[in-house]
Amino acid sequence: MLKTIRISKDIGLFTSINYLTFPGYNDAEDEIERFFNFLKDCPVDLIQMRNLSIDPYIYMSKVQAPKGRVLGIKKLIKMIKKEFPNIKIGYFNVPKEALTEKGREQCYFI
Asked: What's the predicted TM-score (pTM) here?
């Protein structure tokens, strides 16, 4: 993935990532540091914040909790905007109209 992002940026393509978030993990200090190191190494144009959508008890029983204080997702987003002002942050869902046959003719997917 890193090589693909680098090549895409080198040839001038718009790049985005889906960032699967789980509160208490992605917004912990050490995870934020790792994510920021990634963004410095492989700058992207857009981060699409996505909820991991997993049972929290299963996830927490399988994945070791990160170290450091948990700052909150809102704080994480503010930190991204401050540290990387050129990166856009978004969350895109398909409109419900696009889920019908008629809607597919009128809507497009990003």
From this structure: 0.78
